[in-house]
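stuck on whats below:

***
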Amino acid sequence: MFRPLLTEDSDRYLIRGMIRVGPSDSMREETGEARETAATDALPFIPPRGRVLIVDDMRENRLMLGLCCDQFGLAHEGADSGRAAVEAARSGRFDVILMDIFMPGMDGMGATMAIRELPSPVSATPIIAVTTAASPGECLRYRSCGMTDVVAKPVQIARLAEALSAAFMATRRARRLSRNRPVERIRASA
């Protein structure tokens, strides 16, 4: 099991690969002193048994995001390109997609637009951009092509958990609404 590590100096982050692990502002007491606690104590709720598709052309990034999913109790699969992501998403097995932006061939924005063209409910799967290019202008571009959220690299575990939690809640809400839609009955005239 992957466990986040804190440096001795709690104001600094330990960076391993693309994951930044360390205390967030919400984990500090009012006095400004760091609490002696693991970085996952303040994470939002993520429902267990969720399925995540991790899309990144870099194997190491897929592995690191996979470790985070393991820590959150989520099943996950990887795809190494935008085209592979569209094919995997077509199956409808995933509750959330973590999508890199910059990939050769079909990039993350192209893959997102292609997934949004698939039949429902697959087209409504939340897609979270995971990218180094996370300026406000870039984030607007990602959202305009159909992405639901953006997580900057290096990934902060608390931020990833927040984005996944929101995505799972949206997925659960959409499924509940689709089950509760009234069925129109056609009366046969006698």
In short: The helical segments are 59-72, 82-90, 108-116, 136-144, 157-179. Residues 1-40, 183-190 have pLDDT under 50 and may be disordered. The chain has five helices and eight strands. The two ends are 65 Å apart (CA to CA).
